Each structure stands twice: as structure tokens, then as C-alpha cells.
Amino acid sequence: MLEKSDSNVVNVGNAPELSNESSMTFRTSATNINENSTKKSPRVTELSHHDGKDDTSAIALAPESVKKVSSLSPTPQNGLKDFALDDEPYTCFTRFQRMVIFAIVIFIGFLGPMAGNIYIPALPLLQQKFNVGSTTINSTVSAFMAVFSVGPLFWGMFADSTGRKFLYITSILLLIIVNILLASVPANIGALYVLRVFQAFGSSSAISLGTGTVTDITPPKHRGKAIGYFMMGPNMGPILAPIISGLILMESDAWRWLFGFTSIMSGIAFIAVVLILPETLRCIVGNGDQRWKKSSNFGTMVDEDVENLGHVEPPAWRLFPDVGIQKPVNTGPRFQFLYPRPSKPSLRIYWNMMKMMPVTISSISTALLFANYYAFSVTLSHFLQTDYNMSNLQVGASYVCPGIAMLIGSQSGGHLSDYMRQRWMKNHENQKFPLEFRLILQIFGILINMLGCIGYGWSIDRHYHLAVILVFSALSAFGLTWCSNTTMTYLSELLTRRTAGAIAVSSLFRNVGATISSAIIIKLCHAMGIGWCFTGLGLCNLISLAGVLYLLKNSGHWQGKINNSM
Fold it and tell me: Which residues form the Major facilitator superfamily (MFS) profile domain (predicted)?
């Protein structure tokens, strides 16, 4: 990563833009850097915002202001304490604080999918109450999914620069208001359409904001399992929502309580965010070390002044933390260098992301898996009611099996992904970790999802026992989350400054795939036959497999180049 020229010039590659210069050389005098530090280069790996083992998204450009005040090692001449490069951990939030943050974002992640799926079992009842045809009432689901697909682009565009907490507050408050209106307005189909659109928009922030928050406080070596923990919320939404809906509608037709319940749950999340959740965006709070707030000169202090400030100081618990749009806690050049602010929000950023081969390929691969899963999800309730004569509550309970498989797939895939990364780093010391190495796991996940998809189709077609159907549905769900966890982890490491935006692009692809699949799957089953229809869907996974193999073949080709264009 370090390239030393003849005149004691150290080139540090792949840095975020901190000035208008397109490229810079971070120069240090011979008195500020010695041969040993050049060889080991631990400080430069910390500059890359990693965990001291690799430099997968290293910083390459240093502004002139940093050149003037920074040194890569303390020297007798200047006595600078290089705390930020040598001593600062990736995050200063305590273990308990991180657990609380995770609990809040997991719960918020549950709200969006729950809001979308709690509504589906009530469609026949709503058709009767609103006095419309089945096509009209079903199209409200399509409208929800369409907005749920593009909504993350808006939230992700601002989440990486404005901050996480302000957008959490805004989106959840919108969700509360809309659900109250849905629970109280007269039964008018036009009002239902409009309010469902706003409901989808408010709930669509959860994935991109949640993943961004997770990456803020989790170093890359633990990120796979961290994202797996976070995804417990979104994964449980589609599973628990039909059961909750069945319980609410079991004894009465109180469909308004579906939205009332969602409003209450959103209110709980709103209170937790406002009262407890701190801002975590790294370009605003850094790693959370409170010493950044105490002195704007922190990072260029002499040893004595740094010692007076004390050791690493985690954020203190307080009520109503960081409410409103926050400014960076420190405006010094070292803070800006270590925690650079991305460029201003723009739709052009998403266009640039979509032109990046690894982003597009990994997103399309995951989208095909989501299309398969939603094809199963929609048809399972339909065929269990028509062919197996099951009640709404029984159908809802049937989703528990694939739901558990989704949780297992996400957790096991995340833990194994991190384990493989650590093994690679142990066996390849002082080498750059190839981010695409994580994608090896997707080969197995894609094949498992394919087996589940094809097996599910033929078990329904041949009217096999319910247990057989649930086994294949579990395989499909397991393969989906096994792969989607890896994709999200990969994108979070590939685009370190645009994590929320990258996840928003991935969400766009997969939600579009889910929308199209759920809209046409019943017609395809009638036209092709259930078995052959799902066989075709399963074979579409070969496209995903080809995409993963292409990324693995070109591993490292894009690494370090992408952040410079963001």
C-alpha cells in the first residue's frame, strides 16, 4: 500500500476527496518517518478505516492542511502524539452501547417489512369493505412495493452526509402519521392508494439506514455477523406479520387495527430513537471518542496535552442525544482526513454506482434470489388455501418454517464470512484482503436456493405432504439470506463512504425483482404449470452464479478505485 519514492515521498492511495485536487502526495520529511514504520505501515492501514489488518478501502489523498500539521510518528522535534493513527479503536462506543444501538435498529428494520406484509392477509376483507374488485385491491400491494423499491434511494442519498438519526426521526414520524390516517379515514380507495404510497416511503428507510449504522460501529472483521444480527429485524417482518394479521382478524373484521398496531409499534421506535439513539455517522462523530469534542486541535497536540485529556473516552449516555441535523464534532484537518465527508447528495451518485460492475452484478444476483423467494411467498399462501384448505392463521403459521431458515442462513453466513476473512488475513500477513473473497460463500447459497425453488414447485404440483413443501421452502429462504448477507457486507466494504447509498441501490434491484415476481407468478403457474414454472425460476439462478464467478475471477480489480469516484 505504501510506495516510497527517492525523495522520502509516501504515496497513500485511494483516499476520499478532501480538496479540489484530483490527486495529492502525502509528503513527510525524513525526520517524521523512518524505515521501520514504512515497512510495517500499521498507521496507513488505520488511515483506511480498517481494523489494522488490511487496507481494503484505504485513504489515498491528503489535503494540504494535513500535510502541514500531520506527522506519521512522534519525533523529538515536534513532539506530536499520533493518537489517531496508532491508538484509536475503530469505534469508542462501549459494548453495552453497541448492543442498545443494535436492538433499536433491528426493531426499526422489522417495521418496514411488517407494514407491507401485515396488510396482505386482509386483502379479501378489504376488497369487500372498499367495494372494489380483486385487481384494484391487489394493485395497492404493487403500489406499495414500487415505492418501497425506490424509497431507499432518497434516504440513502442523504444518510451518508446528513446523518443517520435525523432521517430515522423523519421517516418514523411519517410512518406514525400515515398509519394513524389509515386507521381512521373513511373507506375510500383513492385515500388508501395515496396513504399506502406514503407508508411505503416512510418504511423504506430501514434497510439503508440500519446497514449504515451497523457499519459505523462495526469494523470489517466483524461486519458479516453484525449485518446478520441486524437483518433479523427485516427477515422477521414478513414472517410475523401474517401471524399478527391473522390474530387481529381472527374474531372480527377490525381491519383498521392492522394500521393501528403498526402505528403503535412505530411510536415505540420513535421514542427509542429520540430518547436514546446517538448519531453514529463517522464523518460527523468520528469513532465516537469524546476527545474530538473537547479540542479542535486534538490530533496535533503535544504528548503532555493529550495526556491531560486522558485515554479514549466513549460517549456518555444522555437523554435526547444529537436531535436535529448535526455538524461534525471536530473541524480540524486530522479529523477531516480520518473521517472524510462524502460529496454532496446527488442522483448522479446513484448513476455512477450503477455503472460499477461489482455493484450492478452483485445487486442483480441478489435480486434474482429475491424474485424466487417472493414467488414462493405469494404462491404458498394461495395454494395452501386453495389446494390444502388451510385457514389464514394456519397459513401464517406456515411461514414460521422458512422464517427460521432465513434467520439461520443470515447468521451462519455472516459468521462464516467473517471467519473466512480472518483465516485469509492470518495466512496472508501484510497483504490486502480481496473483498470478493467473501462471495465464495454465495456459490453454495445460490445452489441451495435453486434446489429449494425447484423442489418447492414440484412438491406443490404433485400435492406432496405439507412437511415436504416446508422443507423446500426453508432451503429457498436459507439460500436467500445466506447470499444477501454476503452481498451487503461486500458492498459495505467496497463503498465505505457510501454504505447507505450502496445498500439503497441493492435494495432497488431486489425489490423490483420481488415486485415483478409477485405480480406475475400466479399467471405463470397457470400458463406453465407450477412445477415447470418454478424450475424455470430456479434455473435463473445460473445467471446469479455466473455473476459471482465473474466477480471472483476479477477479484481485486475494482478494489480501492471505487471510493475515489464517490
Answer: 101-556
Q: Which residue has the cell 399462501?
A: 381
Contact between 228 and 413 under an 8 Å Cβ cutoff? The reply is yes
Q: Do domains 100-285 and 346-566 have the same CATH topology?
A: yes
Give how far Cα 240 sits from Cα of 235, 237, 247, 367, Å. 9, 6, 11, 23
Angstrom distance (rounded) from CA 203 to CA 148 = 7
Whether the Cβ atoms of residue 497 and residue 335 lie closer than 8 Å to each other: no
More confident residue, 525 or 345: 525
Residue 530 has pLDDT above 90, yes or no: yes
As its CATH architecture, domain 346-566 has Up-down Bundle (1.20)
State the DSSP code for 80. B
Phi-psi region of 52 (alpha: psi -120 to 50; beta: other; left: phi over 0): left
Which cell numbers hold the place of 282?
Answer: 463517522
pLDDT tens, 102-117? 999 999 999 999 998 8
Helix (H, G, I), strand (E, B) or coil at 302: strand
State the DSSP code for 2.
Answer: E
Q: Name the nearest CA neighbour of 377 among 254, 513, 526.
A: 513
Rounded to two decimals, what is the model's pTM? 0.77
Q: What integer best gives the mean pLDDT of the chain?
A: 80
Distances (CA, A) of 132 to 119, 135, 282, 427: 16, 8, 50, 64
Helix 206-217 vs helix 134-159: crossing angle, to nearest 10: 30
pLDDT tier, 310 (very low <50, low <70, confident <90, very high otherwise): low
Q: How confident is the model at residue 17 (pLDDT cuts 50, 70, 90)?
A: very low
In single-letter form, the type of residue at position 249 comes to L
Percent of the chain with pLDDT over 90: 44
* CA atoms of 548 and 358, how far apart (whole Å): 9
Could you say which architecture CATH assigns to the domain 100-285?
A: Up-down Bundle (1.20)
Distance CA 267, CA 275 (A): 12
DSSP 563: G
Residue entry with cell 432451503: 475
Conformational region of residue 288, where left means phi above 0, alpha means psi within -120 to 50, and beta covers everything else: left
Domain boundaries, the chain: 2-76, 100-285, 346-566
Residue 258 binned pLDDT confidence (cut-offs 50, 70, 90): very high
Question: CA 398, CA 42: separation in Å to the nearest integer?
Answer: 52
Tens of pLDDT, residues 128-156: 899 988 778 878 888 898 899 899 999 98
pLDDT tens for 417-472 read: 999 999 999 998 888 888 899 999 999 999 999 999 999 999 999 999 999 999 99
CA contacts within 13 A on the Cβ side of 370: 24
- Alpha carbon distance 358, 356 (integer Å): 6
